[in-house]
Amino acid sequence: MVVNEVTPPKRKQWTNPIEFSLTLVAFGFPRKLDIIDVSTNQIICRLKNVSDRHRLQNDANFTILNSTSNEWISGRIIRPISFLGAKYFIKWDKYNILMKTKFGSFLTTTFEYENHSSILAKSKKRISSLFGTAKYDLQIFSNDLPDIIYFIGVVIKDLDTTFRPNG
To answer: How many CA atoms lie less than 13 Å away from 12 in the CB half-sphere?
Structure first.
């Protein structure tokens, strides 16, 4: 099932879509999500504890496959309570990234280091997504992190706002 389309930055040409495979449990809310590279049919990322409607804080654990070493590297996304826009903290390897959507600008999300203001990436939900399949444009301005980190952020935010209407 293809849930989201992400347009990669001009620095890379992506020829294959990224596919999202959901595992559903109680009441149909996703608990595990695999991100698959369609060209190789290989799982490149796995998210766990993706959504829990009954908690005020949304945490998700994930692992990313390092294609060079063939090792899985763990990380975590934390969504603290926020009343003025949405904030997420992505902890992965030695990196701490802040993903935020400003109040009143629910379509645009920026990624930056937690203690700096320079923007690493920006995603924007297409207006047409409000009435159909979710589609995003993703601009990546830094090579510091693997692109999949930004894909994870987009997926988590999309799931969080889909399953948490006030999110």
So the answer is: 15
pLDDT on residue 96: 94
Task: Measure Cα distances from 4 to 91, 101, 152 in Å.
Answer: 23, 18, 11
Mean pLDDT, rounded, of the chain: 74
User: 119 in helix, strand or coil?
Assistant: strand
Q: Which residue has the higher pLDDT, 85 or 149?
A: 149
Residue 31: predicted pLDDT: 67
**DSSP secondary structure letters along 42-69:** EEEEEEES---TT-SSEEEEEEEEETTT
Range of the domain at 155: 5-163
What domain count does the chain have? 1
Q: CA-to-CA distance for 54 and 29, rounded, in angstroms?
A: 11
Q: Which residues pair with 28 in a beta bridge?
A: none
